[in-house]
Write a structure and sequence with these properties.
- Helix content is about 45%, strand content about 15%.
- The protein is built from 6 helices and 5 strands; from the N terminus they run αβαβαβαβαβα.
- The protein has a 5-stranded parallel sheet with strand order 1-5-4-2-3.
- The longest helix is centred in the N-terminal third of the chain and has 18 residues.
- The radius of gyration is 16 Å and the shape is globular.
Length: about 130
């Protein structure tokens, strides 16, 4: 009988974690939204400024993942928009998505394959 409350608590925590997990967005879908200048879209590059300068997704804003918690106010206008986050391979983006989720952002997306896939697929890049 004691196991039921513990199970229910763990189940509730697991459901909350699943509900809070950001969705993935395919590079093709992001390319299309960028092409029609979707006003409900913010693209966030969380790589270093040097990586960003070497090339980034068109229209992306650069806030390194190590600075995001301190600079999240810069994205206050994006709270009601779809925020697509990417890095080179995924680890920094996942950390950034956690920061944004804790800050109350709810429309979060992770670019599937991150910048590596974006460039492998020869998608547009700004330097």
């Amino acid at each position: 009988m004691r196991r039921l409350p513990v199970f229910l608590l763990l189940f509730a925590i697991a459901c909350r974690a699943v509900a809070a997990a950001p969705a993935a967005i395919e590079p093709k879908a992001l390319t299309e939204r960028i092409a029609w200048a979707d006003p409900a879209l913010v693209v966030l590059d969380v790589r270093t400024p040097a990586e960003y300068a070497d090339g980034h997704v068109p229209g992306a804003v650069n806030i390194p993942h190590t600075e995001l918690a301190a600079r999240v106010a810069e994205l206050s206008g994006a709270r009601e928009k779809d925020v697509v986050v990417y890095c080179r391979s995924g680890a920094r983006a996942e950390q950034a998505l956690g920061v944004l989720g804790k800050a109350g952002f709810t429309r979060l997306y992770h670019l599937k394959g991150d910048y590596t896939r974006w460039t492998d697929e020869k998608r547009p890049v700004v330097k």
